[in-house]
């Protein structure tokens, strides 16, 4: 059977509150985001592995608070003074550990935002005590910040996300296919998106439905690093 041409069309992930599925793995973090006006000292650190939903949670908070969202790697090129009076979310703060200029910029941002009545959300892969910050004043402020953790997605969350991802692509799948995929896939939300994208591409190329046999083939490709 001839293979069909497929096209990679850009997909814009939905990052609103209604698109965030709450499960035991993320309920505490979502609760902290929704009660952001009660944060001790108006600041929060959200820590979790890649693919646990930190970016989505950040954008939920930005929608609630009107916050500016920025990557930590842009701190040294940002006009910190211009953020006075704003609430700010800084993503991936742990990656700047050891970078003096960016650590100093985060320190000044922390002090300015809170002094002017704003709120500060910081995301990272792990708790501040494990970042390895070289600036003692910044380290003490980050370690004193309330911490909310995002655990790897549980079976329920992965199942709901997979169904939503397939539905977004107008692909009809059976519950048994979801049950087959969940225990065999990498346990992250980003991995779920990649898996559904690859299954959609393979089904289109081969002009066939997304079945268990196709899923097994695609999973083998992921394990071999070919997808």
Descriptive notes:
By secondary structure, the chain is α/β, with parallel strands linked by helices. It contains eight helices and five strands; from the N terminus they run αβαββαβαβαααα. Strands 2-3-4-1-5 form a five-stranded parallel beta sheet, with helices on both faces. α1 runs parallel beside α2 and α7 crosses α8. The longest helix has 18 residues, at 189-206.
Q: Write down the secondary-structure element order.
A: HEHEEHEHEHHHH
Rounded to the nearest angstrom, the radius of gyration is: 20 Å
Which of globular, elongated, flat, extended, rod-shaped describes the shape? elongated
How far apart, in Å, are the first and last alpha carbons? 21 Å
The secondary-structure class comes to: alpha/beta
Main β-sheet, in a few words? 5 strands, parallel
């Amino acid at each position: 059977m001839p293979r069909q041409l497929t096209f990679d069309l850009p997909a814009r992930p939905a990052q609103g509150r209604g698109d965030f599925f709450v499960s035991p793995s993320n309920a505490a973090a979502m609760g902290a985001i929704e009660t952001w006006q009660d944060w001790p000292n108006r600041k929060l650190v959200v820590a979790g592995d890649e693919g646990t939903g930190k970016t989505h949670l950040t954008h939920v908070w930005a929608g609630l608070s009107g916050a500016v969202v920025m990557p930590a790697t842009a701190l040294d090129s940002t006009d910190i003074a211009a953020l006075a009076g704003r609430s700010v979310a800084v993503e991936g703060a742990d990656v700047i550990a050891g970078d003096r200029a960016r650590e100093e910029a985060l320190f000044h941002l922390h002090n300015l935002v809170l002094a002017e009545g704003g709120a500060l959300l910081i995301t990272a892969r792990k708790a501040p005590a494990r970042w390895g910050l070289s600036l003692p004043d910044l380290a003490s402020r980050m370690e004193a910040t309330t911490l909310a953790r995002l655990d790897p997605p549980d079976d329920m969350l992965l199942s709901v996300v997979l169904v939503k991802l397939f539905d977004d692509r107008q692909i009809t799948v059976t519950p048994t296919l979801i049950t087959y995929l969940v225990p065999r896939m990498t346990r992250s939300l980003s991995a779920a998106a990649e898996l559904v994208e690859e299954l959609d591409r393979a089904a289109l190329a081969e002009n066939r439905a997304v079945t268990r046999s196709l899923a097994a083939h695609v999973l083998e490709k992921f394990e071999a690093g070919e997808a």
